Amino acid sequence: MTGPLDGGHGPGPDEPSEQGPGAAPRIPGPRAAGDDLSPPPVLPGPVPSGLVPSGEPAAVGRMPHGVLKSLLGAWALAACSAEETTAVEEHLTECAPCADEALRLRDAVGLLHADRDLDLDPLLRSRVLENCLGRRPARIPVPAWATPYDAETARLDALLRDIGDSEWHTPLRLRWFDGQEAVSRKTTVAGVIGHLMSVDGLVASALGLQDPAGEDAPRSPSVRTDQYWRSAHFPPTRRIRAPWREQSHALVRTVSFAGRGVSELSVSYGDFALPLRDSLLDRAFECWVHADDIANAVSYPYDPPSATHLYHMIDLAARLLPAALAARRRAGLAGPARHLVTAGSPGRSLHLEVEGAGGGHWYIALDSPAALGDPARAVAQVALDSVEFCQLVAGHVSPVEAAAGQDGDREAIRDVLFAAASLSRL
């Protein structure tokens, strides 16, 4: 025998049926949805006054739970009639599960409003990180002496992310002081990043990492840069950003895991060397200077480093000044030493006062690169703004025009200002 489900037919009018008069059908019909009931069934009980149209007698009864629950979505969207709204809200005072569901729906609807700003609070990330690090400090924190480099490379990378493809080819000039006069070289934004990556390779090589210039590359920063500009794809494009940033990350990761002794590792620059802690500070300084060059070329706002980092950059320059002055004296570019330096007589000094953020007081030994500046033997004083002093050290400001205030031995002042400018290089 076939049935409705297998393509047969049911019993005809003259065929006997297997179902009795009161038997239920084998396949029940589809069930109606709760909100398709028209009109809804009325249960015994009072009807809320809000459901009774004005001027009509109140009927005794209220909507069942299933119907009211089906109206929660419309209620959250404020799409119910006045009578339905009253019924739903009265029900919510009696039914905790429906009340919870109604609150979730109402909160979800709040996110749909077009006038609501869905952007995250820009300070959210910093607050979350601060809270996390406050509860559990990082296992391998970046050494304090490496944080200026970490910060300045991150700031420059943020600038590079913001500029367009065409701006990578914006021309600019790298400026420095060659000992006697200001000089410059023309390049592009991408060329500057290639220069930074090439010189950072000296630090990478000292740490045993891959040097992008190759194992046999020269140690001189200017020669390395010239070699890169001649051999690299010309003109360099924004693709240089990825290897430069990966190299800076690798340097920070390596010194963070290396331990305390690594800070004194020597980094050779050809005709001079610096301990790693000073070398990374020097690289942070150059990163800021060239980031400022790029920002000026593409009309991008760019601030100086934080006061703490700026102070350490100025301190490094002040510590290098006696050796720079001695080198200029050997080249006949500075006045001779006037006092014999002995154990009990450290010789003359100059009081360098740097004002503004990151500023402080330094006493520069004038007669010996190995001596410490003695405040009691200061023969001159120079006062400069902190950013102006850094621009002088970068070779961006003329030594003749840099000093904001001078007092004392004019020759000593001139020699120190020119020595500061000679710290700059390509």
From TrEMBL:
Q: Where is the Putative zinc-finger domain?
A: 70-99
Question: Taking every annotated instance into account, which residue ranges of this chain make up the domain Mycothiol-dependent maleylpyruvate isomerase metal-binding?
Answer: 150-295
Is Transcription included in the keywords of this UniProt record? yes
Q: Which UniProt keywords apply?
A: Transcription, Transcription regulation
Q: Where is this region: Disordered?
A: 1-56
Low complexity bias: where? 20-32
This chain's protein is named Zf-HC2 domain-containing protein
Source organism per entry reads Streptomyces formicae
